[in-house]
Every structure is written in C-alpha cells, then in structure tokens.
Amino acid sequence: MPACDAAKISMITDGLVTDGSSLFCSRRSLVQDGAPLTYFFADGKHPTTLGHLIFRPR
Q: How does pLDDT run across 7-56, given as a tens digit for each residue?
C-alpha cells in the first residue's frame, strides 16, 4: 500500500491526476500522518523517506 492516497490526490487536483503519482503527494494527501516514515513506497514506483533511508549508500 502506498503512502500517498490516490483518491485524495485526485480530489486535490480536481480529477486531473488519478493514478496517485508521488509528484502530487503532500501532507494533505497522505494515507495517515507520518506515512513517509512508516510506508516503503510513496506511489507504485517511488520510495518514501523510509525507502530512501533503507537503500542509502553507506
């Protein structure tokens, strides 16, 4: 499950974006508070903050 809610993004963009693209993900469109630190993906392809922290080079 992605951190960005596709239905909220669609509503915010007046239906212009319906795929839940992370480009339009914001605090207003998260599935819950703190989602970027508890979910691995923002949308179907792009990692959240947590995803980047797990895969960062050491």
A: 999 999 999 999 999 999 999 999 999 999 999 999 999 999 999 999 88
Distance in angstroms (rounded) separating the CA atoms of residues 9 and 29: 6
Distances in Å between the alpha carbon of 38 and those of 12, 13, 14, 17, 41? 23, 25, 28, 24, 9
The encoded tokens of residue 12 equal 């915010």
pTM, rounded to two decimals? 0.82
- Geometric angle at alpha carbon 33, from 28 and 55, rounded to 5°: 100
For the chain, give the number of residues. Answer: 58
Residue 48 buriedness (CB in 10 A; 0-12 / 13-18 / 19+): buried
